[in-house]
Specification:
It is a single chain. This protein has a 6-stranded parallel beta sheet with strand order 1-2-3-4-5-6. A two-stranded parallel ribbon has the order 7-8. It is globular, with a radius of gyration of 24 Å. Helix 4 (155-164) links the parallel strand 3 (144-148) and strand 4 (167-169). The chain has 2 domains: 7-303, Alpha-Beta Barrel (TIM Barrel), CATH 3.20.20.70; 318-416, no CATH class. It contains 16 helices and 8 strands. The longest helix has 24 residues, at 189-212. By secondary structure, it is α/β, with parallel strands linked by helices. Iron/sulfur cluster (SF4) binds at residues 70, 72, 74, 77, 79-80, 116-117, 184. Pfam families: Radical_SAM.
């Protein structure tokens, strides 16, 4: 595509090319606002238009690539060097103008900017940083900025990115080093890990400095995140859960995003022909929540997977799968059990557990009290004791799984997603 092509044509290409990246959530950043006439934009969600990509992912940010030219040849990527796609490119100033114009029309709450690698990693990173710099310094833009950073670029450039962006991210891409080597031959697992460690260091140092001096500069206040592609290589769910846990622990990531591999036009022969069911991505997000909010260890989440294949069941959620595998931990007495055991009960979310704990301070809970807090009392009954309910040897029944699994119609909806 020629440099003269209209902005709109290029926007069509570069927004479409960016949709394969799942990591666009804008949660958890510092509050900045232009209320009072200072600057432009706000990270708080007042009057924001949300839009969704055809596959249902949130794109309330202007989510684009600076360019889909790339000198790398990652097999799973539509923008790889050997791909036969129409190419386009924005200048940093064009991205700035687009962002401001979308922002002023209230279409977006900020910018999610990524890029193929053009000329060199450093050159590309410089351009990404330049977009953020112009927005922040020349326009006093206070909206949200998420910059994808390039692990092969100079650490100094990554450090500059963090000074302007709310969130920075580096895609780990594949769950295993062997998968990365095979499918992204130009990338290096140690380089990705080194860049993530560098960003973590900057984030921690900036936080420490701000505790001492309020005027110390912020560094990526919404932290760093990453994305893993699911189903492009042979990694099992247990492998993916293990990798995510290592990433959270080692690099203090805010989020790991899981993206079901999408077959791309002109796909390389080393890739699977079919995408994995989207339900697999959903189960991985659920397992991620178990580790982050429900107190499950990595090994416990992995125990919910099939011991031979390492795959999480698709017909039931990982919390229910764990409860069925460890029936001896149940039933849980809802009137006496500690919070951590209440969180293990299938069908009870964090909010329901908090409500139960508050309610049981004043009265003895009966099954009806619990039914008001869950969508499926049938799923929960075999696993709990209340003042008026105790399951009778239910946990020993061979057909327990069938009794508590969601109805087949609901399962089919999930598989179709
Ligand atoms: S570096 Fe790899 S994943 Fe990124 S745009 Fe280039 S080919 Fe695609």
């Amino acid at each position: 595509m020629s440099a003269q092509s209209s902005i709109l044509d290029r926007l069509g290409i570069l927004a479409d090319a960016a949709k394969y990246d799942a990591s666009c959530a804008s949660s958890g950043t510092a509050k900045k606002s232009s209320v009072g006439g200072k600057g432009i934009g706000s990270t708080e969600g007042m009057g924001i238009c949300h839009a969704y990509a055809p596959d249902g992912r949130c794109i309330s940010l202007l989510k684009i690539l600076l360019t889909n030219h790339c000198i790398f040849d990652c097999h799973y990527c539509i923008n790889r060097k050997s791909s036969n796609v129409v190419r386009a490119r924005f200048t940093p100033q064009e991205v700035v103008d687009l962002t401001l114009s979308f922002y002023r029309r209230n279409y977006i709450e900020g910018l999610f900017l990524s890029s193929g690698i053009v000329k060199s990693s450093n050159h590309t990173m410089e351009q990404l940083v330049e977009v953020a710099r112009i927005l922040r310094e020349e326009h006093d833009f206070r909206g949200y900025i998420h910059l994808k950073t390039i692990p092969e670029a100079d650490p100094e450039l990554l450090a500059q990115a963090g000074l302007y962006a709310d969130r920075v991210s580096i895609n780990v891409e594949l769950p295993t080093d062997a998968g990365l080597k095979r499918l992204a031959p130009d990338k290096s697992a140690p380089q990705i890990a080194g860049a993530m460690a560098g960003l973590k260091r900057e984030i921690v140092e900036a936080k420490d400095a701000r505790k001492r001096f309020r005027s110390a500069p912020q560094f990526a206040p919404a932290g760093q995140s990453t994305q893993m592609i699911v189903g492009a290589d042979a990694a099992s769910d247990a492998d993916i859960v293990g990798k995510a846990s290592t990433l959270y622990g080692k690099f203090g990531l805010r989020r790991v995003y899981y993206s079901a591999f999408s077959p791309i036009p002109d796909a390389s022969a080393v890739l699977p022909l079919k995408r994995p069911p989207l339900i697999r991505e959903h189960r991985l997000y659920q397992s991620d929540w178990l580790m982050r909010f429900y107190g499950y260890t990595t090994a416990e989440v992995q125990q919910a997977a099939d011991p031979v294949s390492g795959m999480l069941p698709v017909d039931i959620d990982p919390k229910l799968a764990w409860a069925l595998a460890f029936r001896d931990r149940f039933p849980v007495d809802l009137n006496r059990a500690p919070r951590e055991m209440l969180l293990r009960v299938p069908g009870l979310g964090v909010r329901a557990v908090n409500a139960l704990i508050a309610a049981r301070r004043h009265r003895t809970l009966r099954l009806d009290d619990v039914a008001r807090l869950t969508v499926s009392i049938a799923k929960l009954r075999p696993f709990v004791v209340t003042a008026d309910w105790r399951p009778t040897l239910l946990a020993d029944r061979a057909d327990l799984r069938t009794m508590v699994a969601p109805p087949r119609s609901e399962q089919l909806e999930l598989f179709a997603a």
